[in-house]
Amino acid sequence: MNHYTTAPIPLITLVGPPNSGKTTLFNYLSGKNYKTVNYPGATVEYSMGKFQSKFSFKANLLDSPGIVSLIPNSLDEEVSINSLYSHPKLGPPDLVIITVDASQLSRHLLLANQLIESNFRIIIALTMVDILQRKNLDIDTAKLGKLLACEVVKIDGRSGKGVENLVAKVENLILSKNSTSELTKAIIGNDSNDLIETYKKIELIESEVLIRLNDTSLLSNVSKANKQLRILIDPKSKIECYKIDARTTKIDRILLHRIWGLAVFFGVMTLTFTSIFWLAEPLISLVDGFFGLLSSESLKLLGYGWFGDLVANGIISGTGSILIFVPQIVILFMILGLLEDTGYLARGAMLIDKPLSKIGLNGKSFVPMLSGFACAIPAILATRTIPNRRERLLTIFIIPLMSCSARLPVYALLLAFILPADKSWLGGFMLASIYIFSIVCSIIIAGIINKMRNKLIKEVDSSTFILELPAYRTPKLKVALNNTFKSTTTYFKKAGPVILILSLLLWMLTSFPNINPNIEKTGLTEIEAMSLIKAERLSTSYAADLGKIIQPVMAPIGMDWRVGVSLIAAFAAREVFVSSLALIFKVTSDESTLQNSIVSAMRNARVGKTQQKLFTTSTIIGLIIYFIFAMQCLSTIAVSRKESGGWRIPILQIVIFTAAAYLLTFVSVNGLRALGLD
Amino acid sequence: MKSAAQLKFGEKVVIRNIDSSHPSSRRILEIGFTPGQEIEMVNSSVFNDPLAFSIRGTVIALRKHEADCIIVE
Predict the structure, then answer these.
(1) What is the CATH number of domain A11-243?
(2) Domain coordinates of chain A in residue numbers?
(3) If exposure means fewest CB atoms within 10 Å of the residue's CB, which of A163, A358, A398, A452 is most exposed?
């Protein structure tokens, strides 16, 4: 702390209705100086930033999820509104910037009006003026400011036009701060007559500030026309302002059509998932091959003692098992971001609202469920946009059944085992089948849970679906890339350390206490001695002790304690199953990739001391079924508890999903064996 | 009494009233469906529900159940 008395850095909160250009402005104001948890589909958690250094004024900047009014209608909005009145750490804001879409003036002024009536000091940032100008209209900002008694600035968050001016006004307002009036909680407009009156007042203001541009023939010459505008109070201008984008309506007639709409919807979904497999495939083998090589090289370099083993099989393989998801997660977040930016995701939600409502879900469950295919954690957080509590809980409940990207390496390994090497194309087909199977199963489970909801979820709430369909636009690749980068880094910051620590823990469990076993080395080559040491170390390890306890549970489903230990380890994160098998079967990286080495080690694994093979087609299919259902993820359980507000939902998830997984695995393994499959 | 849920494709009407006893009425008003406003049913989803209405220069999708509280005649 320095001893100069400096004024505390002011806090500015950014507020705005959905689709008003709020996040674009936030990004422009804060540049790269922000911390954020941002998930596809919604600005669910608020971002915290500072004004970029290029603006000479210093201030903390808080972004919040889009809200329609100060009276909350969903959890998402409640968080946003509460933190607006008083942020839990930073207190009430010194100033609120509200983004108002100029082409949606009357609808967006409702929130501005509520903020003013609650005694917030506000400044209006008028966005999307260009859309209005294309309709030959403009807004008299000076007059609007006078009527509302606040500053109004036109800005373009994408190009940054007008933002300097906005910052200057913000600085003026903050410095001229004199009297602080108490904030009053909004009760205004709670009554429907009040709302109607407010809208009448806003409509009056609107008709006074809307200006028709003088020269209607010069569409391209807006700026020139702008200079010679003449204020005309013209009832026609309001009608023109309310015209909707004709192109969007035309596109919607196809995309919401009962045949074409569904065809496009399934086409888009298929394309999304196939590109996750096909685009990510070469990148994954690259990452996999690289870590396989690194692991075997470091083993050679450091020697085959316990230290070399720790580095190669503990640290390097552990890191590899995290980084192997990067391609898939990046691609899925990227596609989701692009779809969101075009405006299609809102249509997708509208399209499947009806079928989803039949199983107790909501059209708004669609985006969270889709995100669930990348990772359940951001997906569960994204359910905050579902206003109905029962539907939200049910969505949270079934999200772990969406085939998240952590299952992919497991499926990839298991499929590599049962499929012949020369028919790798079958892998993609089988993977697609697993996805379809898991989607069908989650629909069935959601339906069953919905039927029993009075016993299981215990929430009664009226179901609603109100969603703005934004005009279609070309997605901005830069915006999508930026969001993808944010989502991916957030995910790895959260999940990465856990996975790494657990891989190390697992290495210790499989190596201690007998780290340097005494064996008779005479007459053996160094390699033979090494593998004997490893086998001895493992069979006397803590993991082996643990495994023997669970052996009776594993035997009925055709597995042994080694698979059991791997399944327990996979509770940390499903993908740990792969690195765990590699450790337990003491895979030596003699093949080109880690996966090939594990597959050959699995082929050689025997049940106990017998000649019976441990891994057969039926046990591998059983394992795949197990992974489709089992609630194998500690982080998901933690997030589920936090977001559902109690232990009820996560405990139900663990019990129901794990029981279903075990039973179905039991049935399929023994059924397949009865049918003669080995 | 006719509600917005009964509108045909492309039908343009003026809102007469909002049924304030409906649980969604507040949110419907907040997003701009107020008496006197002109709305048009511009699209319907695959299963004829939800419906999309143009209101105040934007398009908003509502379930028929919600559109029922918008009284148009």
Answers:
(1) 3.40.50.300
(2) 11-243
(3) A452
